[in-house]
User: Fold this.
Amino acid sequence: MIDSSQTLRSTEILRTLVGLPTVNPMERSYSSTTPVERPVIEYLESLFEPYGVSLSRQPCSPIHESLLIAVDGQSTGPATLLESHIDTVPADDWLDRAFQPRIKNGRLYGRGACDDKGSLAAMVDAVLQVLDSGERPPQPILLLAAGDEECGQTGIKHFIQNHTTLKIGRGVFGEPTSCQPIIQHKGTIRWDLTVRGRSSHSSEPEKGQNAILDMLQVIERLRQLQVELAAQHKNPLLTPPTITVTMIRGGTTRNALPQECTAAVDFRIVPGMNCEDASRHVVEAVDTMELATSHGPFQCFAPPLDTAPDDPFALAVVQICSRALGNRAKLLGVPYGSDASYSPAGARSVVLGPGEIGNAHTIDESVELSQVQRCAEIYHSIVMQDWASK
Assistant:
């Protein structure tokens, strides 16, 4: 059960985290000489240093870094990975209050409260509970406070690429899920698609090739592909695959045909599809249209999360959640993605955290404090479970 000291601590941790801006520039210019996540990393180090646990900063890009906190277990592994990201999206529309955390009617307001500092606060509190008790967990705990989830996911990718010798048996990835365990989500592939035409004066369009009109044909082909993929890939937990054009630009002047048009493509795939085959299928379908098309590099190439509904770890987690929430939790699927796309090889993973996804990235973003506290209890139960027999 949650006691008053835990309630106060999880709230104070979250209040401090929200008050430390860690805004991901999202490919905009960044002038600071320290990584985006450094204020939070220094705060977390101050919390854990008195316990003598292993703390390791993990530079993952020129402007991003993560912090890995390792707690020894009674056995040497496989470890339980808790992962939550430090960075937030910008708060340009409400800078006057975004980083001044405030509590009203049981909710804490501020940028990152829901996505993803509520999860991070609950994970930190859960691990501190273990350390305060003096009881070693059955298996080691790895808490990764990850950088750059909101843009390049370089934090989790760096961790996976550079810690191949770590034995990790299971992963819990913090995101706002209303404390319900997510076992499947879509993968994301993003790239720019360009069509080239031939410019001419707009008074004589017949002498040119209008790249924007050609792009309309490409967009219609993408729509047809989405219909075909929806019929081929059905999943009881998820909506079908989608191919969405999210941005488009073309032309240089009002009185000339555009010689080039570029569209940003967002392709969401479901479990059972892989990034390589799925992207190749779309690219080849576009390139056979006999238009002058080209494709930019992939900006995102994240696979789906695909944990089986009958996986023993997933079933144990849903039982833990049901006990903590006082109701029957469910194993769910969601259309968005997370760092769980890059779960360690062989690890069974779920996405689980406090807050509602519809509240993420919004003005006056907030999280219900009772959910943060309840999720800390859930995380604590997970890391203190002996998974050797599961």
